[in-house]
Design brief:
Blueprint lengths: L15 H9 L3 H19 L6 H17 L8
């Protein structure tokens, strides 16, 4: 089984949900933080997709950006 390491995405007072909300409001820096945070997972998942690693990562990033920007991701409070 793969060992999972938990790391922080933002400051101590800034949760993942807060960063996603900022990205939904058009904050490109928040979007970059999310992509950087998830990059290792995207690289791992790319191994299971039958296309080049670079293309599959780009497709996943594009889908993630579209989901965040068009409201398919929701963090309720």
């Amino acid at each position: 089984m793969q060992k999972q390491v938990l790391t922080s995405i933002g400051t101590e007072t800034e949760s993942f949900g807060t960063i996603v909300k900022r990205a939904q409001l058009g904050d490109n820096q928040a979007l970059i933080k999310i992509i950087d945070f998830l990059q290792p997972d995207l690289e791992y998942l790319a191994c299971f997709i039958k296309m080049s690693k670079e293309d599959s990562i780009q497709e996943m990033i594009l889908a993630m950006i579209e989901a965040i920007r068009y409201g398919d991701v929701w963090f309720g409070e």
